[in-house]
Design a protein that fits this description.
90 residues, alpha+beta, 56% helix, three-stranded antiparallel beta sheet, 12% strand, single chain, 3 strands
Length: 90
């Protein structure tokens, strides 16, 4: 019998989904917004949050939406169910 764990470990889509899920658990949107607003680099933000730069990038890619000077976390329960809103200077 072949193990499905091995297949998942080499499947890029599964890895991306796992990274997105982990990023949602590990990165607090409000803390991220504070750190971003003071102008820290990506590496500095990741260090302050206690995550890798790759995990921080997964958070930004999969969980943030930037619209006209505002950053929203992606909705979890459908349209207009944003968990957090942060404004940044343009």
């Amino acid at each position: 019998m072949r193990s499905t764990v091995t297949k998942g470990a080499t499947d890029p889509a599964a890895e991306a989904a796992a990274d997105a899920y982990a990023a949602a658990l590990l990165v607090a949107p409000a803390h991220y917004a504070r750190l971003e607003s003071i102008g820290l680099s990506t590496g500095e933000v990741a260090e302050e949050l206690g995550v890798t730069v790759e995990m921080l990038r997964a958070f930004v890619e999969h969980h943030l939406v930037r619209v006209r000077g505002a950053a929203y976390t992606r909705p979890r329960l459908g349209a207009h169910q944003h968990g957090h809103l942060a404004r940044w200077a343009s």
